[in-house]
Amino acid sequence: xxxxxxxxxxxxxxxxxxxxxxxxxxxxxxxxxxxxxxxxxxxxxxxxxxxxxxxxxxxxxxxxxxxxxxxxxxxxxxxxxxxxxxxxxxxxxxxxxxxxxxxxxxxxxxxxxxxxxxxxxxxxxxxxxxxxxxxxxxxxxxxxxxxxxxxxxxxxxxxxxxxxxxxxxxxxxxxxxxxxxxxxxxxxxxxxxxxxxxxxxxxxxxxxxxxxxxxxxxxxxxxxxxxxxxxxxxxxxxxxxxxxxxxxxxxxxxxxxxxxxxxxxxxxxxxxxxxxxxxxxxxxxxxxxxxxxxxxxxxxxxxxxxx
Length: 307
Prior knowledge:
The chain has 307 residues and is mainly α. The protein contains nine helices and six strands. The chain has helices at 2-11, 13-29, 32-56, 81-102, 118-121, 124-145, 170-196, 213-233, 244-269, and strands at residues 63-65, 75-76, 79-80, 105-106, 113-114, 157-159. The chain has a two-stranded antiparallel ribbon. Strand 2 (75-76) and strand 3 form a beta hairpin. Helix 2 (13-29) packs across helix 4. The longest helix is centred in the middle third of the chain and has 27 residues, at 170-196. The radius of gyration is 25 Å and the shape is globular.
């Protein structure tokens, strides 16, 4: 067991980085209990969905794991557990990013904070946006993981039959939506039950730029995948028939779309009202922002001055 864990830590640096980012952020936002529950449920649900797909093709489409590529690493039922851990990490980052994009933001620099409500964090709006952000990111990840034999990921799996999106079946992205909805929705139900039981989140600490960690983590994944694509373009090991340039163009377009969307939503979040806060942009009867004393209007004489 220890050797299998060591191999995973050595061979899967991207997975380890994602899991560490998830744990550090979740402890700062939700505390120990909710972090542990998300890790447990996210890993278990992700593992089950992958096991189902390798047997029945539901929900990601039918694919086959090449077990020799992760021999000696932690696995169960022919599914590598580092992939299952990734589901927990990626879904939490998507959930946290959705909370950031839909909550009012205040402060500047490292002191930026989000004002989230109990109703919002357990809402359908957060659930749906989180699932969309996670599936969106997979449209960049999966075409490149299929080419893992040409970079350090390794030749992990193949789809049978291949799909139209650079070998990835379109139903794979539907599977990511379903899996993300299941993991995030399950943890929202647990969170709501804990809050109703008088056990609110108990964050361990505060992080600088805390609301932006999840968005930054997702952005880092896009940048990493762009870097992998550029590396493969310069590698002689990749067959010339591999559509790397179309993959690069697709990755850049999807990354630009994600960046434009998140920037627009963050700008909007700074204008969202906070309950009980006076709106600094609302003008009073003098046309001056609230909270600012208007200039005293000039006194108008009530009678004509004496000649």
